[in-house]
Amino acid sequence: MSLLSCKDIGISFGGLKAVDGFSIDINQKELVGLIGPNGAGKTTIFNMMTGVYLPTEGDIQLDGKTLVGKKPYDIVQMGAARTFQNIRLFRDLTVIDNVKIALHHEIDYGLFAGIIRGKKYDRAEEKAQVEAMELLKIFEMEEYAEQKAKNLPYGKQRKLEIARALATNPKVLLLDEPAAGMNPQETQELMDTIHFIRDHFQIAVLLIEHDMNLVMGICERLIVIDYGKIIAKGTPEEIRSNEEVIGAYLGS
């Protein structure tokens, strides 16, 4: 059974069919790319997978359990985490507090314990602090722990957003244009980071990306969509020479 499975999902906005009959199966520890021209429906697909949008048709399952109709926070707890095309950090909080927020599912003290700040509160907060710092060390960001997120360089803000997503202990990580706005050096570092995440955390990764060097360099499979429909599936080598894909990108 696939880890993440979409079966003929679609969504309409008024009279516009934004996504039509999209199907995909992603296995454990796979690294898959979803590509297509601007406006093809890629982020809309992510929004359906993560509960932001409700599909008007089809089904989405994670580990055999449907995600359709679930709230975004329920889907995170079920094992699907994401990042966004536009970075969405808590900019005025510290780097480590951004990660600790994602560990809220492990907090086992109630409101009263949080108010009086007793031993149970101290133990839970210490555990979250340790786990958050361990994640920052993995990304070589521990030295920035007490800095505000808004003061980080752009590439490190991207890393922080990924670290925060990983703090939810996902089975599959959805990355929406992680290389957007990065220079070539930052993009290369990101490629190494994505490979490391897949191998170290043993999770599946599905990413949307316009940087062809990145997707061709790290993805095992690619799905190409245009006008909300799949036009090609295959290995990077197969996609690179696909005439329909070339036509969609070049407008020929």
Provide structural commentary:
The structure is a single chain. By secondary structure, the chain is α/β, with parallel strands linked by helices. The protein has a domain at 4-94 and 166-250: 3-Layer(aba) Sandwich (Rossmann fold). It is 39% helix and 23% strand. It has ten helices and ten strands. It has helices spanning 42-49, 72-78, 95-101, 111-116, 119-138, 154-166, 184-201, 212-218, 236-240, 243-250, and strands at 4-13, 16-26, 31-35, 57-62, 65-66, 80-82, 172-176, 204-208, 221-226, 229-234. The strands form two sheets. Strands 6-7-8-3-9-10 form a six-stranded mixed β-sheet, sandwiched between helices. A hairpin with a 2-residue loop joins strand 9 (221-226) and strand 10. Helix 3 crosses helix 5 (119-138) and helix 3 runs parallel beside helix 6 (154-166). The N and C termini lie far apart (39 Å). The model has no long low-confidence stretch (mean pLDDT 89).
Fold blueprint:
Elements: E1 4-13, E2 16-26, E3 31-35, H1 42-49, E4 57-62, E5 65-66, H2 72-78, E6 80-82, H3 95-101, H4 111-116, H5 119-138, H6 154-166, E7 172-176, H7 184-201, E8 204-208, H8 212-218, E9 221-226, E10 229-234, H9 236-240, H10 243-250
Helix pairs in contact: 3-5, 3-6
List key phrases describing it.
39% helix; 4-stranded antiparallel sheet; single chain; alpha/beta; 10 helices; globular; Rossmann fold; 6-stranded mixed sheet; 252 residues; 10 strands
